[in-house]
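User:
Note these tokens:
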Amino acid sequence: METFKKLLRLSRSEWPQLGWGLLFLSISSVALLAYPHSIKRIIDEAIAQKDQSQLNLAALLALGIFAIQSITSALRYYFFTLAGEKTVKRMRARLFSQIMGQNITFFDKQKTGELLGRLSSDTAVLQNALSVNISMLVRSLVQALGGLVMLFMTSAKLTVFILVIIPPLGLLAARFGRKVKAISKRAQDALAASSGVAEEGISGVRTVKSFAQEKFENNRYDERLEISFGLSKEKIGVIASFTNLVSLVGLSAVVFIVWYGGTLVIQGEMTVGTLTSFLLYVITVAFSVGMLGSLWTDFMSAYGASGRIFELLEKETENIEVGIPQIKTGRIEFNDVHFAYPSRPEFPVLKGVSFSMDSHETVAVVGSSGAGKSTLVQLLMRFYETDIGSILFDGIDSKSYSLKGLRESIGIVAQEPILVSESLFENIRYGKPDATLVEVQNAARLAFAHDFITSFPDGYETLVGERGVQLSGGQKQRVAIARALLKNPRILVLDEATSALDAESEHLVQKALEDQIGKRATLIIAHRLSTVKRADKILVMQEGRVVQVGTHSELFKQETGLYHKLVERQFENSKENL
């Protein structure tokens, strides 16, 4: 019942359309219920009395009833279905917005495929329930109740028998419905799990093919599908059993009615026309009740899906607007910061990190893999909050800033930049949605991307493909730099921005980045030490701690220090590669 109330609230904007749908449904149902009576009139008053004029009039009346019923039925379907589609469209939009509004910890725990399953398969189940099925449900309910009233008016004796078998059928429907609901929820969960496996395989298709593991991925997906199929098969079996039972009881009731009604006709207590109209009403009621049974199982499936959807819709989202609107200068301070990822709380990543950088200072962070370098960026962007200690911007705790303002003040270039499947223009403008073409071009020039962009036949309108697959690594990186610079951020963060590039691409990207040094606070996370030599200050991290601080020349002189070892190790590796 609570879920039904939630759906009603969600569809409030469509209530006027639902009102029109109910009006036409009422007219359609009345017309359908009047049809058996018109047949009774044809048989008893026209055919029995052999009156052609009465027959003509009754036939025209029946045709008129049919015309009204068909037109209003079509209008009923239109308004109910349109209202349902609009409600589901709004639900999908809200669900996607709700997913995007979650914090990073939420995404650490959820599989992308499962979230996509809720957006697609779960809402598709609900879409059927709220569009076509809701219309059919109301129509069948009205016709069943209206038919029962007409049955009483036609023959109370025969109607009493029908009323005896309806309550047991109702109890059976409730029992089967609960079973279908439970199975449906498990089936939807299993389908979402299979979607998660499919998403992993498709998104990582290059890795799959590079290891020739297509068969492994196929088997993995087949296993999840088999589980989903098994549950669907169980649900089909339950529905088939229920349908079989209802059909058997219904047809047996029709046989009894024909036998008992025929007896009443023979005894002169009922006319042939009355028996015919009674049978037509029985068929109408039986069809409507049968439809209600079928719809009941569908709605139980939708109920299971809606539970998963509302679980997400009611989940609290990040409030990105509350707080100080923007970072002004870009001065950063880390004060005794301790941190462990929520998914691995027993493994601390940062263990008392402290440092500061001024608004036009360039600070580089180096260290071996797992030292905690990239975690600094995660905390800087407030993807996660510190466990102990604080991060200050312009002397103010980062938690006092709005998430929106803080993140708009920081431009980030990651090792593997993610581009959207749009044009180069839209990808660069992603950093500033209202930017003009001139502003985009200027940012591209600063990132040394303008020349390669204009070499394409479509220039800035060139589509980059999914995740920028149409571009080389260096091109993607320069687009990402242009995107970050277009924001004109107070703080520029370069997280391993050149580590995956070839020498030529690295040279161009490095040139683009060096032009920005000194113009704003710049934090460089790097493996390649060639990218940090010009930094005003270098932090050397090891096992979650800052173990050395200084310039390149100062740190290199400390021959027993970690920085000196890192430089020598890279120099030896570069000689080996030669």
